[in-house]
Amino acid sequence: MTVTHESAAEASIPDAAPQPAPGATPPRRPLAARAAAELVGTAALVAVVVGSGIQATELTKDVGVQLLANSLATVFGLGVLILLLGPVSGAHFNPVVTLAEWWTGRRGGAGVTIREAAVYIPAQTAGAIAGAILADAMFGKPLVEWSTHDRSAGHLLLGEVVATAGLVLLIFGLARTDQLRFAPVAVASYIGAAYWFTSSTSFANPAVTVGRTFSDTFAGIAPGSLAGFIAMQLIGGAVGLALVALVFAPGRKAEG
Predict the structure, then answer these.
(1) Do 53 and 217 contact (CB within 8 A), yes or no?
(2) 252: which DSSP letter?
(3) How far from 9 is each of 5, 12, 24, 95, CA to CA, in Å?
(4) Are the beta carbons of 175 and 2 closer than 8 angstroms?
C-alpha cells in the first residue's frame, strides 16, 4: 500500500533536492532496509488478520461479530503499519501493488525497478508466512496447519477481482492527485469496507493469501483455492490500472 512522505524541512527549502513522485519508493533507503520493512510489515499485517480471527472465534460464536472484530483489527493494524513503514519502503505489503508500481514506472518514471520488485515480492511472501505462523504460536495452535476453508466458488473469485481493482484504483488515484498523505486512513478504510461489500472478504493480496493457507483458522484459505485467488488478484490489479488510466488521464493544455 504505497505511501511516501516528505519531511517538513525539505518541503520548506526551495532548493532542496527533487523528491520522488507520489507513489514512488523512497530512494534514499538501502534496498535491504526496504526489503526488511516489507517483510516485517507483511508479517505484522498477517499476524493481525489471523490473530484477530482466532481471538474472535474464541470469544463469540456469532459469525457476524467475528467478521466485525476481524475487520476492525485489520483496519487499525494496516493504518498503523502504512504510517510507520511507508517512509521506508512505500508500505506495499502486496505483490500486486509492487507489480503495479513497477509497471507504471517501467519507462523511466518513479517507482520500483524490476530488480527491486524481485526483492520485494519474496520478502512480502516470506513475511506473510511468518506472520501466520506467529499468530498460530501466540494462540497455542499448531504452527503450520493447512487451512481447510475452501474458497473456490466463482462468486468469491469475482469478489477478489473487485477488491483488488478497487485497491489499485485507490492507491494510484491518490498518487495521481497528490493525496498520498491520506493513504494510511484511506487504504485501511477501503480494506475495512471491502471486508463487508465483497463476497471474498477482500484478501486482495497474493502474499497474504499464501500466508493464510498456513493457518486452519477463521481467516484461512485452503491451498486448493490459492491459485484461483491469486489469478483473480492479478487480473484485478490489471483492471485497477486500466481504471486509473481512464479516470485520471492527464488533461490537455488549452491551445492559444
Answers:
(1) yes
(2) P
(3) 12, 5, 20, 32
(4) yes
Q: How far from the centroid of its chain's Cα atoms is residue 243's Cα?
A: 18
Predicted model pTM: 0.86
**Contact by Cβ (8 Å): 57, 67:** no
| Nearest-angstrom CA–CA distance, 160 and 256 | 47
Whether the Cβ atoms of residue 178 and residue 3 lie closer than 8 Å to each other? no
The reply to whether CATH 1.20.1080.10 applies to domain 23-244 is: yes
Q: Give the list of residues 6+ apart from residue 98 with CB closer than 8 angstroms, or none.
A: 92, 112, 117, 120, 121, 124
**Count of all residues that appear for the chain in the document:** 256
Tell me the one-letter amino acid at 70: N
Digit-by-digit pLDDT tens for the chain (256 residues) are: 554 444 444 333 334 444 444 444 445 689 999 999 999 999 999 999 999 999 999 999 999 999 999 999 999 999 999 999 999 999 999 999 999 999 998 866 678 999 999 999 999 999 999 999 999 999 999 999 999 999 999 999 999 999 999 999 999 999 999 999 999 999 999 999 999 999 999 999 999 999 999 999 999 999 999 999 999 999 999 999 999 999 998 766 555 4
Residue 27's Cβ-side half-sphere holds a number of Cα atoms within 13 Å equal to 11
Across 52-71, b (16+ Cβ under 10 Å) vs e yields bbbbbbeeeeeeeebbbbbb
- Three-class secondary structure of residue 200 per DSSP: coil
Cell of 161: 477481482
Eight-class DSSP state of 208: H
Nearest to 41 by CA among 75, 82, 70, 76: 82
